[in-house]
From TrEMBL:
Chain intervals with Basic and acidic residues compositional bias: 39-63
Biased composition annotated in UniProt, kind: Pro residues: 1-11
Organism: Natrinema pellirubrum (strain DSM 15624 / CIP 106293 / JCM 10476 / NCIMB 786 / 157)
InterPro entries reported in the protein's UniProt record: DUF6788 (IPR046738)
Record region (Disordered): 1-27, 39-71, 96-116
Domain of life: Archaea
Pfam families the record matches: DUF6788
Lineage per the UniProt record: Archaea, Methanobacteriati, Methanobacteriota, Stenosarchaea group, Halobacteria
Ranges where the DUF6788 domain occurs: 50-108
Protein name as annotated: DUF6788 domain-containing protein
Length: 116
């Protein structure tokens, strides 16, 4: 083990280097543990987001709005004796919906609500 103080990475902001230099060994160990766990967490989140983006490529129906995820499904809601299509998907604990259009009586006879 060297008796010289380590050289901080060149891309580390000066205020962070100053704070670390003023910290106790115990706090530095806590910071090291936290930063390792945080780096792993951020890498995992980025990987999951990248996988989700890859899964969505090429799977979007032509009439799917940009603000509706590819995992959305079409549901029919009846309001005042009228039937309407809605895109519907889950965001965490909540179910989100976006209006698609009215249900035409013709669509019940073989036409798909997906526009095909």
């Amino acid at each position: 083990m060297s008796y010289e103080s380590p050289t901080p990475p060149a891309n580390l902001p000066t205020e962070i280097v100053s704070t670390l230099n003023e910290s106790t060994p115990e706090r530095l160990r806590d910071v090291a543990t936290y930063t390792e766990e945080l780096a792993e967490h951020k890498e995992r989140e980025a990987r999951l987001e990248e996988e989700a983006d890859r899964d969505q490529v090429g799977e979007r129906p032509d009439d799917l709005p940009d603000d509706v995820p590819a995992k959305a499904t079409i549901t029919i809601k009846e309001i005042n004796d009228n039937r309407y299509y809605y895109w519907q998907w889950r965001e965490g604990e909540k179910v989100r919906s976006k209006y698609k259009g009215p249900v035409n009586p013709d669509e019940g006879r073989g036409k798909s609500p997906y526009g095909a």
